[in-house]
Amino acid sequence: MESPSYGGIIQKYRACLPVGKGTTVVSLLEGNTPLVCAPRLARWLELPEDALLLKIEGMNPTGSFKDRGMTVAVSKALEAGARGILCASTGNTAASAAAYAARAGLRCAVLLPEGGVAAGKLAAALMHGASVIALRGSFDAALALAQRVAQEDGWTLVNSVNPSRIQGQKTAAFEIIEALGRAPDFQFMPVGNAGNITAYWLGYREWHAALKKGLPKMMGVQAKGAAPLVLGRPVAHPKTVASAIRIGRPASWAAALKAKEESGGMIAAVSDAEILSAWRRLAREEGVFCEPASAAGVAGLIRFARGGGFHRMDASKRKALRIVCILTGHGLKDPDAPAALRFRRRTVDPDLRAVSSALNALK
Ligand SMILES: *Cc1c(COP(=O)(O)O)cnc(C)c1O
Q: Domain 66-162: which topology?
């Protein structure tokens, strides 16, 4: 039988990835995610209508960009004859690792900060058969422990400190370049453990080295209560509604700063109120439901644009402006998050007049 036209990121980008003939590819056809324009948001920010694009990484098989890294990390773990894979996770890494481990027939163990993981992510890890351990401690404590267990007990660690993760995740930059015909001028994205900003920068630089064309300014965004890269020191008790970036000691700290500096970008912090507002705006005005952490990048864009960040640009450059926001994960995995917005809703009897008057009351 003919193989399907799209076979996942390893099939598509094999030449740029650390896989050989002996690697059995473990794939769920991750990658190839949509790059959707956001004209209403662009207009509101007084940008050209086609300037703003959303990379919808929530469309990956387990609902986040983690799948791009996991297909490479799990394929390599299988090749190396690993005893199993292990990760610390705020949720999406666990869901992804569990799915790819199931696919590979490998054991998977996940260490989660107790109470800090969205319901859909935990549900996925359990459904895929992972051994789930809730830790009375932060993500940072979980990662430090996972690294030690991996060293001592022979599990393969599949957090983004595993270089295969970064290699797989860089393919998102290739896809953006292919869609635009060039790199964007700016890329806004949330930053937690900082693996993803490291991966994108690697992808853009590899492409740049081959073709000598432009590079984006890398605009990393953290939540104010969990902004070690902005403060310049670790945060012992990170706090934010955005659980996926509730991280106080990013593993890829130095690489994230390097991406910022080399690209002439920045790393900024936004408040939870700004994150929630951007999150709701995307859902209501663009029809895109991401998770709160993903909206942090857009909140950073809004802050930058309203602060006049794009004003100093000459007219012709402005006309051709391309800004990409990375929406890292799908909103459906965190069904409890919308409670933060206190939506109104009414319960009525199954009666026409009751329904009509409820509709009018809700406007
Ligand atoms: C993992 C994750 C992040 C943060 O990515 P890092 O590589 O840790 O910086 C952001 N958003 C979502 C939805 C995630 O799952």
A: Rossmann fold (3.40.50)
